Amino acid sequence: MTEIVMSLPTAADTWELGRRIAGLLRAGDVVVLSGPLGAGKTVLAQGIGAGLGISSGVVSPTFVLARVHRTGRLPLVHVDAYRLGGVSELDDLDLDSDVADSVTVIEWGVGLADRLASENLHVVLDRGGADERRTAVLHATGPGWKQRLRALSP
After folding, report:
1. What pTM value is reported for the model?
2. Residues forming beta bridges with residue 32, ordered by sequence position
3. Which residues are CB-neighbours of 93 under 8 A, at least 6 positions away?
4. Which residues is 151 bridged to in the sheet?
5. Which of 84, 141, 147, 151 lies 20 to 30 A from 63 at CA?
6. pLDDT more than 70, % of the chain
7. What is the pLDDT of residue 128?
C-alpha cells in the first residue's frame, strides 16, 4: 500500500485537495473518506465534485444516505455510510449498478468499499485543536491507485 501524508492548514486547502484528486479520477473509482466529525470529509467531497465539474451543490448525504450528481465529467455518487448498519444495508442501496460508470465517494466507508472495488483511495482526515488545520493521510489500494497517487505528492 502506498501512503502520503499532507498538512491542510485551512478548509480551503482540504477543498483544493479534493479538486486535485478529481483530476485523477476515472469511471469506476471508489474514494473512501474517514475521520472524526468535523474533520472535513464533506469539504473534501465538495472539492472532488467541483473538480469533476458538478454544477449542483455537493452536500452531506447524511439523511438520504446517497446522492447522485450527473452534471460533471463523470457522475458522482456521494454516500454517507455513518447510519448504515453494515454490509447488507450497503447492498440495499444498490450502488453496484452505478459504480462502473461513476466515481463513488463514501464517507464513513471503511470496511465497506472493498465490496465495491478491489482498488480504491482511502483518505483519512484528522482535525487537530481548535483551528482549521487538518492532516490527510492518503492510502492507495491496488496498482492503479498507487501509480496515480504519486501525482498528489507534495
Report:
1. 0.84
2. 106, 122
3. 65, 66, 79
4. none
5. 141
6. 75
7. 77
